[in-house]
Amino acid sequence: MTLSIRALSVGRVFGLPKPSFTYLRGWGATVDIPLIMFVIEGGDAPVVVDTGADLSRAWDVHRIKMEQSADEQPDVALRSAGIDPDDVRLVVNTHLHWDHSSNNHLFPNARVVVQQSELDFARKPVMWHRRQFEALPDLSPAWQRAEDRISPVDGDTELAPGITLISLPGHTPGSQGVLVEAATRRYLIAGDCVYLYDSWEGDADADHIPAGIYTDLVAYEESLRKIETLGCEVIPSHDSRVLDRRIFA
Question: Could you give the domains of the chain?
């Protein structure tokens, strides 16, 4: 068995404040970022990691300018890669923010795996995080479209041979990454624990730079230190260079 990771573009968002991505850095600057869905191939069935955002809610609910071509709809993008969405048996959400979990329902035969702590928080987030989880009056969160297929886990968990869930709280209480034993090296799909390559590489003041959106900054630092012990190459969640490379094997 030889595993590999494929990164698929499922849209772009524009004009976001840079400090949302780089903690206390970039005041006054904005960034445009890709939305990325990952597919782990080579096992018994393809595993999808994160399913992107719902374009129809981007402006009305989130006041975010988003663009998604017809080819970037998650099910279409997957078919273009030669994979039938019906063949997906596992969907992993690194966390339940709207831009990572809105299209779980497009994979009707898949079990959806999230951390129990993430599920608990998403159902009743603190007020400052309600919009990210779509926990708003008169709105059903998009992730709940597949709620009946959610299979929660608690902590680091082997998902399948060569694929391990790694608990990485901080950005949200139940943030997690996916550690993959590929042909040539280990890779970590880091979710929003690591937004950008620059986040992992750090700067003169810090080894790594957390996101500006978080629930626990102390836990966040512990998660970043945990990644250091994994002996892996880190794949960030919203860096266009991930899509430029496309295949991690």
Answer: 4-244 (3.60.15.10)
